[in-house]
Amino acid sequence: MIRIRTMTAADVPLGMRLREQAGFNQTETDWRRFLDLEPEGCFVAELDGEPVGTVTNCVFDSVGWIAMLLVDQRVRGRGIGTRLTEHALAYLAARGVRTARLDATPRGRPVYEKLGFTAEYELARVEGSPEGGGPHGAVSPIAADQLDVVVELDREVTGTNRRRLIERLYREKPEAMHVFLASDRIAGYLTFRDGFHATQIGPGVALSDEAGRALGDVAIERCAGQTVFVDVPTDNGPALDWTESRGLVVQRRFTRMRRGEPVVDHPSQLWAGSGPEKG
Asked: Looking at residue 275, what is its pLDDT?
């Protein structure tokens, strides 16, 4: 029998085991962030009493992100992923969310399509040990009093109020977040964080190609000698060109999908997603 229950901190080792099976990049810190941001919205599936699956939610006002749909490879094909997704959707509906979004892997996309999700656009995950990069006069570490401006800029580009996420990432690693100033106004930001396999560059948005490239170059200088991942919308040609010029290659692709009302976002200004778990 399949039973769905709320995830707790005691389930982090389960999440890490399933993450390893899937080859995902999340760390224990990521799992704890999921739980802290949405303590009642992360779930575990049990099959005959054994924990075998996970799913997480993160609510940003009227938009909810579903992520970390993982099922133990020993018991796949038994409808556990579908049950988890249905449970996540029911949670979002109870919260009054008008749009559910997610970044689907090729394995997961058919599950979501059967549940009424439609494709919006593609993202390419690029990876490598980047070459080049360096400081830029218009890029500086973010100051705490600039966070409100960054949150609003991110909302304009993504169509989503991700304040809780951005503030959390800043608290975790303030030195990683940088802003680009144009005529004394913030025209972009970018941050990065540790991952299990690679440093995840993102989230980050930029109102100009110059801002995107400059922020990216500062980030890869800070990550010198490390393997990095960057998730870039394929609609953002200049960002993909920049990653190629820095020696990064496409590792895998995701499909951004939604169920519910459309979200007005601007993928051409999204230079780095936060990873498939929160857009």
From this structure: 86
- Which segments of the chain are extended strands (E)? 2-6, 43-47, 50-60, 63-71, 99-104, 118-128, 139-141, 178-182, 185-193, 199-206, 228-233, 249-260, 270-272
Give how far the C-alpha of residue 203 lies from the chain's centroid of Cα atoms, to the nearest Å.
7
The closest of 136, 271, 139 to 206, measured between CA atoms, is 271
Rounded CA separation 20/79 (Å):
21
pLDDT digits (tens, 9 = 90+) for 106-119: 988 998 999 999 99
- State CA 89 to chain mean position distance: 18
> Are 148 and 244 in the same domain?
yes
Q: How many Å apart are CA 191 and CA 202, to the nearest integer?
A: 5
Q: What burial class does residue 169 get, using C-beta atoms within 10 Å of its C-beta: 0-12 exposed, 13-18 middle, 19+ buried? A: buried
Rounded to whole angstroms, the Cα distance separating 161 from 163 reads 6
CATH of the domain at 240: 3.40.630.90
Average pLDDT of the segment spanning 154-176: 98
Q: Are strands 50-60 and 43-47 parallel, antiparallel or unpaired?
A: antiparallel
Domain hosting 47: range is 2-97
Sign of the alpha-carbon dihedral angle for 71, 75, 76, 81:
negative
Q: What is the pLDDT of residues 34-57, one digit of tens each?
A: 999 999 999 999 999 999 999 999
Please check whether residues 89 and 131 belong to one and the same domain.
no
> Do residues 246 and 131 touch, judged by C-beta distance below 8 A?
yes
Residue pair 226/198 in contact (Cβ under 8 Å)? The answer is yes
Q: Give the predicted TM-score (pTM) of the model.
A: 0.95
Tell me: do 134 and 255 sit in the same domain.
Answer: yes
pLDDT in tens, 9-20: 999 999 999 999
